[in-house]
Design goal:
The protein has 424 residues and is of the alpha+beta class. The protein has 3 domains: 92 residues, Rossmann fold; 68 residues, 2-Layer Sandwich (Dna Ligase, domain 1); 228 residues, 2-Layer Sandwich (D-amino Acid Aminotransferase, Chain A, domain 1). The chain has 13 helices and 25 strands. The strands form 7 sheets. Strands 12, 15, 18, 20, 23 and 25 form a 6-stranded antiparallel beta sheet that branches. A 5-stranded parallel beta sheet has the order 3-2-1-4-5, sandwiched between helices. The longest helix has 21 residues. The radius of gyration is 21 Å and the shape is globular. The structure holds adenosine monophosphate (AMP) and glycine. The site of glycine has 7 residues, from loops.
Length: 424
């Protein structure tokens, strides 16, 4: 089989490595992929949002199955365009991808169908938003409606900060059209859990839970990033919590999307907060999370391609989706300065022992050398029987990977480990 994966980050590298385990797979093309994947996929210089070119490539090269991984092509309708040409794909269509593409849509969906989430107001007029903030309870959360590269959420701890956020999103348009509307919502507290779930609109199969680390620096300090590391499973997500989430969030979301005529097929990502009043949805994503995928897929014992094809063909109930019992950890190594300004072009080297456990996110090939080419450069992963061992092994592998100006968090998994002591 010839497979095509749209996207170019660490998540896509993890997906490619998992797909390659299927013996029927002959070639995997990555559009555009990145230089760090050159041994695992054929790199095709077509951008992830160049939908016409993606479709043309798939048709010309006889692609048997396509996986569209990132949010933007999904929201733009890449799956619709490929399906029209008869290319089977994994990922939601445009109508369903709106669950991530518009926060106003997802908040209204949750309200309409009674799915637990933070209380909120929607504004399309900055003056009204500013008026509301004069008396609103602080801290408060301001969110741009549309996609904003993971930066459209501002947790305001003062009234002034909240008002500044409204001005920069709605008046200065720092996120462009994504800021035409905003959601202003209640500030929630509690441990965060990411749950990725396979769904074909009829069956919902949650994968092993995970925990992301969004802030750039140790002890959750510094700016928000795309994610600096992950662990799985997330110890806060007990069996009882999982059962509650299935009943109050996962199945109701699937049913809600069906009722809206927007059946979701693909990987639905639930960003949850375990509040004192029970689990609530912080956000939905219409795709695999990054870097959650880098810890979830290595724990998947079932064949990924088989599961994905079952989703496409709406027979997810017929396949087994099994996860290993152990734990996994991913430590992201980034370029100094990320998520703001950083330098690129430094050679990346690693031991052969570490290589199979490294998922590369931002690299290019320059004069035959793999060099850094992004903020998040790569994720170093490990699996072990216990979370403690997985963390230790991941960090020992970090020592075997080198590039100039590298920085990473030293406390990935610390919060998760604390869950065990809190229980006692
Ligand atoms: P998002 O980009 O929607 O994933 O939001 C980024 C981060 O902001 C989340 O991972 C949470 O840590 C935080 N966040 C978002 N919404 C809320 C909320 N209502 N209360 C508290 N924290 C939030
Ligand atoms: N790690 C969070 C995300 O993929 O959006």
């Amino acid at each position: 089989m010839k497979i095509m994966v749209v996207g170019g980050g660490g998540r896509e590298h993890a997906i490619i490595r998992s797909l390659a385990k299927n013996k029927t797979v002959e070639t995997i093309y990555a559009l555009p992929g990145n230089g760090g994947m050159k041994d695992d996929a054929v790199l095709v210089p077509i951008g992830a949002t160049e939908i016409d070119k993606i479709v043309a490539f798939a048709v010309e090269n006889g692609i048997d199955y396509a996986v569209v991984a990132p949010d933007d092509p999904l929201v733009l309708g890449a799956v619709d365009a490929l399906s029209e040409k008869g290319i089977p794909c994994f990922g939601p269509n445009k109508a369903a991808a709106i669950i991530e593409g518009s926060k106003v849509f997802s908040k209204n969906l949750m309200k309409k169908y009674g799915i637990p989430t933070a209380t909120y107001e929607v504004f399309d007029d900055p003056a009204k938003a500013l008026q509301y903030l004069k008396t609103a309870e602080i801290p408060i959360v301001v969110k741009a409606d549309g996609l904003a590269l993971g930066k459209g959420v501002i947790i305001a701890t003062t009234r002034e900060e909240a008002m500044d956020a409204v001005r920069s999103i709605m008046e200065d348009k720092v996120f462009g059209k994504s800021g035409n509307q905003i959601v202003v919502e209640e500030f929630l507290t509690g441990p965060e859990v990411s749950v990725l779930a396979f769904t074909d609109g009829k069956t919902m199969v949650p994968m092993v839970s995970s925990m992301d680390h969004k802030r750039a620096h140790d002890n959750d300090e510094g700016l928000n990033t795309g994610g600096m590391g992950t662990v799985a499973p997330n110890p806060y997500y007990t069996e009882a919590v999982a059962k509650e989430c299935m009943e109050t969030i996962f199945l109701p979301t699937m049913a809600a999307m069906n009722a809206e005529g927007r059946t979701f097929k693909g990987c639905l990502y639930f960003g949850l907060m375990l509040t004192p009043k029970g689990p609530k949805v912080i956000e939905y994503n219409c795709r695999f999370g990054d870097p959650e995928t880098q810890v979830v897929l290595p724990l998947l014992e079932s064949d990924l391609l088989t599961v994905m094809q079952a989703v496409t063909e709406e027979r997810l109930d017929e396949v087994e989706v099994k996860f290993a019992k152990g734990s996994a950890c991913c430590v992201v190594m980034a370029s100094e300065g990320y998520p703001q300004k950083y330098e690129k072009g430094f050679p990346i080297t690693m031991s052969e022992a570490a290589r199979p456990h490294v998922f590369v996110a931002g690299a290019a090939i320059k004069e035959g050398q793999v060099v850094t080419n992004g903020g998040r450069v790569l994720g170093v992963t490990a699996m072990a029987k216990t979370l403690t061992d997985a963390i230790a092994l991941a960090y020992s592998r970090v020592d075997e990977v080198h590039f100039d100006n590298a920085f990473y968090r030293h406390d990935i998994g610390k919060r998760a480990l604390a869950a065990y002591t809190e229980e006692k």
